[in-house]
Amino acid sequence: MRRLGAELLAPLLCLGSLLTACVDTSEPDTRVEQAGQSAGDAQGGVSSGGSSVAGEQGGGELGGASGGEDLDLSALPAQLTVATYNVQNLFDLVDDPEREEYEYTPGGSWTQSAFEARVQQLAQVIQEIDADILTLQEVESEVALESLAERLRSQGGPDYPHLAVSGTNDLRGIRLAVMSKLPFDRAIGRPINATYSCGNGTTLDGSRPEARPIYEVSLWGSGDEALLTLLVNHWKSKAADPYPCAVSEHHKRAGAQLRSLIEGWLEERPSRAVVVLGDMNAWESEASIQDALGAVTSTQDLRFAPDLYNLWGELGVGQPGVTDNATNSSYYYDERWRRLDHIMLTQPMLDGRGVWQLEAFEQVRPAFVMRDGRPYRWDLDRREGYSDHFPIKVTLRRRSDN
């Protein structure tokens, strides 16, 4: 794979055709105002399709939300479902000459009818997921996301009126996205730009952020006042060029930055619910997740509020005698089941202190997303299949203060 050139790693990223402003990626909370709406993404993310725009106040009023722990939670729904799904290359039909779209360059195999088939099959999976908030990886644009949301509506599936797409410096242009039944107050991209010393003597000093940001989506308040924050991830692929450091070191850098962010938030407000999720391209036992991020698969190993519980533990992962198989994994590679996709909750979400508490966790695996005993991945030439990943989903319940 080609190394990312300087032109893709510049601190300024111009937005696409829907927004023409440029934003400074060195400031994670920079906002872009366009036609009276806030895009709210330091790397150029946008909200689209008449959806709730990041920065709008749409989460409802909660008494005492800015003053500590005396909160009136009656405005929150009693239950909430959140899911993550790597959709494997949801591209639009717009030729972007600044990106290497490969087989998804319009023309050839990638035609209108192929796009329609792709959207239809993903919509079938998303109907099965039926989450209140769905986070996605590998979405090229707001146009592609809008098309998916519209297909869901037209066939009687879930209605997701609130949409947002992150910015990206990815060579192919793939982005993070969120589809929500509920309005959110903020969606911003936080470049992975923490300082990190690599084993080869290279120091990543922040001037070279990872291609895809951490996408912060907040509900019921923004910034330090949010009562629920999702940190959506799509870390560097294990197959990527290990430049300028090993891929595992890029992962550790991302994990450490997430940990630092969460520690600051929970010190300010212990009840804040933080969910880390997405395609981390690392399994639960790797140092980037277990050590740098501090995520464990056993609740007995949680020690501090910023520690994260990796919900694969709910399916027995990490326990003696539990083997990797199709019922407790999300990805299949090299004749082995693996878990690259994760949902992780901060400790207060399990011990009664958090505004949101864990109710249940599941791998969403209807029969049709399997073929030959493994994920039925999308095949462009045949125009069939779904994704090489399974979606996963958490159900949260509102804390009871009775």
Summed up:
It contains four helices and 23 strands. It has 402 residues and is α+β, with helices and mostly antiparallel strands.
Could you outline the blueprint of secondary structure elements for this entry?
Blueprint: E1 12-14, E2 22-24, E3 33-34, E4 37-38, E5 79-90, H1 112-129, E6 133-139, H2 142-154, E7 162-165, E8 175-180, E9 186-190, E10 196-197, E11 203-204, E12 214-219, E13 228-234, H3 247-268, E14 273-279, H4 287-293, E15 295-296, E16 308-310, E17 331-333, E18 336-338, E19 341-346, E20 356-363, E21 370-371, E22 374-375, E23 392-398
Parallel strand pairs: 5-6, 13-14, 15-16
Antiparallel strand pairs: 1-2, 3-4, 5-23, 6-8, 7-8, 9-12, 10-11, 12-13, 14-19, 16-19, 17-18, 20-23, 21-22
Helix pairs in contact: 1-2, 3-4
Note down, in words, how this protein is organized.
There is one protein chain. By secondary structure, this protein is α+β, with helices and mostly antiparallel strands. The chain has a single domain (6-60, 76-398), classed as Deoxyribonuclease I, Chain A, CATH 3.60.10.10. It is 15% helix and 26% strand. It contains 4 helices and 23 strands. The strands form 7 sheets. Strands 9-12-13-14-19-16-15 form a 7-stranded mixed β-sheet. The chain has a 6-stranded mixed β-sheet with strand order 7-8-6-5-23-20, with helices on one face. The protein has a two-stranded antiparallel sheet with strand order 1-2. The protein starts with 11 loop residues before the first strand and ends with a strand.
